[in-house]
Structures are given as structure tokens and as C-alpha cells.
Amino acid sequence: MKVVRFSWRDFRNLPSGELLPGAEENVIYGNNAQGKTNLLEGMWLFTGERSFRGAKDPELVRRGQESAELRLDFTADGRDQTAKITVLGGRRSAELNGVKKRSCAAMIGEFRAAVFSPEHLSLLTGGPAQRRAFVDAALCQIRPSYAALFAEYSRSLAQRNALLKDIPQCADLLDTLDVWDTRLVQFGEKIMRGRTAYLEKLSPRAAAFYEGMCGGRETLSLRYEKSAPNFAEALREARKNDIFTGHTGVGPHRDDISAEISGLDARAYGSQGQKRSAVIAMKLAEAEMLESATGETPVIFLDDVLSELDAERRDYLLNRLRKFQVFITCCEPDAVCVEGGKMFHVKNGVPDAGAAT
Ligand SMILES: Nc1ncnc2c1ncn2[C@@H]1O[C@H](COP(=O)(O)OP(=O)(O)OP(=O)(O)O)[C@@H](O)[C@H]1O
Ligand SMILES: [Mg+2]
Predict the structure, then answer these.
(1) Rounded to two decimals, what is the model's pTM?
(2) For 46, 64, 203, 334, which has the most beta carbons within 10 A of its beta carbon?
(3) Is residue 154 pLDDT above 80, yes or no?
(4) d(CA 326, CA 341)
(5) How far away, in angstroms, is 82 Cα from ligand 1 center?
(6) How remote is the C-alpha of 166 from its chain's centroid?
(7) Does residue 118 contact residue 126 with C-beta atoms inside 8 Å?
């Protein structure tokens, strides 16, 4: 999958213009607040996912304007495709090859990409919920049927928790708890199996990217950590306590993903650069998983990754991810030594024409 042309009108601080990227590395550089991240965000929206900055739709329209338009020409499945996104009246709409889509989310699966922005560091610095969300989103991308499974599990969990809170007032309700326990175990075990299998495949891939970045001097290992090895049994054992606290204390909603660098917990012991490298490796591995599931290499967006990385790690990201089309932003072009590929200088929302390096 490759972006051939990206153009816009009145998107954030970008008035109107186009970007003609190269098939491999594309470096977008410039001072702070010039529109580098906005360019990545604009292209990312074609994945059908929400903005990786968590932006609301009205924020996407250039201040003082009524609407914004984005157009992406890309190749997928060996065919040329054209997608358009319009933000009007505070809402986004999309069309693909001239056909209007039900919603922007209906674009999911048409244009595939993986993104790393500094906020994604929370994958290691934040709580387990973010790590679970990472795996769950990846599973849904590969197999959309997982979305229904997660929804069923959440619904059963909410019902069970509501029941737990009512039981102290009405002991008769205790009998109905079994029904929800059965459902929770039925959906929960499927989720645990899916996540475990995904991590087993993701871990060696992430390890390979990580080793590439640090010249093989360190190792990265990821593992799915269950809050209980046997969910059904743990749920039975925790029942008394659950009734006391009013919520379900074990299950996939309490599980986590452990990340170890050379045998040490990355969250507790990792340096800034190690954590950053580990999250980037996880994101690249996610892209490779998507590739093996769909037969199509996703586009990679790396926003502001180069700071805190030493020359060797930077070189890996700039010059050795050859099979992907990569868009990478940075402030200082001096920090960048890219062999081949294109460089774009962005000033005041206007990127200059790409020049081969
Ligand atoms: N809806 C909007 N209308 C006009 N300007 C906007 C809008 N949304 C964001 N901006 C402006 O866009 C500018 C560029 O933002 P962007 O995040 O792309 O900068 P950047 O080049 O990535 O900078 P940095 O190096 O600091 O990350 C900011 O000054 C921001 O205020
Ligand atoms: Mg930025």
C-alpha cells in the first residue's frame, strides 16, 4: 500500500496544497507548529480510525473556514484508488472511488497504516488499559468479528457488575449470577486466547525490529499476562469478594502485557530511548502482522520519533525500513541522514516540493 498523492483544502493550518511522496522514506521537517503533524494526521484519517491525537471533527477545519477537504490517491491490492474526506458542519464524511461511504469508519480496511506519535509512549508509561486497547484494536483490524466479541464481553461485565451491586439488597438475585458468569467466561476465554495468540506472533517480530534498532545489543520480549490462569475457577473463587466490592476483580479486563528489555521490566527499568524504541518496535510489528493478514504492506507514520534516539537507532528508522512507505517528521534536518527517499520542508502550512536526497 502506497500513498501516491495527498492533497487538502483548509485542513487545520494547511490552506491548500499537495504532497507527492516517494515510495519509500519521506521526511517532513520544519520548525515547531508549522503543520508537520497535521499532514500525517490528514493522511491517517483515511484509515477510517479516529485522529491519533484524539481530535474532534470541528477542530480539523481551518479556523475561520466552513469546511475542510482531503483527497488521497493511493494504491491498494495493485489498484489505483482515490478517497475523499469532507469535514462540514462539524462532521466527517468519506467517499471511495466516487462512491459515498456510510461513514468515515466504513473506510476501515481500505487504506491501512500504522502510526507512532509521542502520545503512544503511554503504551509503556501508562496503565494496562492502554496496552489491552493496543492489542484489541490490532485484533479488530485483522479480524473485524472481534469487535462484536469485545462488545459482548463488556455488556456481560456491566450486567454482572450491576447485579453484584444489587445482591446485598436482594439475596434472591444471587441465582442469576451463574448466567452472567457463564457468558463472561465464554466470551472472556475467547478474548484471552485471541490476545495470547496475537502476542505470541507479535513478540518475535517486535524483537527483530528492536534488535535492528540497537544493533543486537539488547533484546525485547512481550508477553500476555493473565490476571488469572483459569478464568472460570478464579471467577468462582472471587465471587464473595466481588459481591463485597461490587465489581468483577478478575478477567481479561484486568489482564496486561509485559514488556521486558534484556530481561528487565521495561516499564520500571527502561531508559527514555529504550521505551521509545520498544513502542516503535511494537508499532512496526503491528504493521507486519497486518501485512501478513492482508497481504498488503501498510503505510507507516512516525511523528517526532527521532528525538531521544541515538544515531544508530535513527539510522535504522530512516534507512532500513525499506519494505514500508514511511512518513517521518522531525524539526532538525541535520539530525537526519536519509539515503534516497524524499525530504519536504514545511513552513506555515506549506510543504515545498519533494526533492530526492
Ligand atoms: N483548525 C485549525 N485551524 C488553524 N490552525 C490550526 C488548527 N488546528 C491546529 N492548528 C495549528 O496548526 C499548527 C501546526 O500544528 P502541527 O501540530 O502540525 O505542528 P508541527 O509542525 O507538527 O509542530 P511540532 O514540531 O511542534 O510538533 C499549530 O500552530 C496549530 O495551532
Ligand atoms: Mg508535531
Answers:
(1) 0.91
(2) 46
(3) yes
(4) 9
(5) 26
(6) 38
(7) no
Establish whether residue 314 lines the binding site of ligand 1, counting it when its CB lies within 6 angstroms of any ligand atom: no
pLDDT, position 356:
47
User: What are the C-alpha distances in Å from 52 to residues 116, 237, 238?
Assistant: 9, 40, 37
Q: Cα separation of 159 and 163, whole Å?
A: 6
Q: How many angstroms separate the alpha carbon of residue 37 from the centre of ligand 1?
A: 7
Helices (H), 2-57: 36-44
> What is the residue type of 93?
S
User: Of 82, 61, 81, which is closest to residue 71 (Cα–Cα)?
Assistant: 82
The reply to whether CATH 1.20.1050.90 applies to domain 115-295 is: yes
Looking at ligand 1, which residue's alpha carbon is closest to its atom 9? 12
Kindly tell me if the per-residue pLDDT of 242 is higher than 60.
yes
Nearest CA to ligand 1 atom 28: 33
Whose cell is 484524539? That residue is 54
Determine the pLDDT at residue 325.
96
Parse the chain into domains and list their residue ranges.
Answer: 115-295
Please tell me if the CB atom of residue 38 comes closer than 6 angstroms to any atom of ligand 1: yes
Q: What is the mean pLDDT of residues 204-216?
A: 96
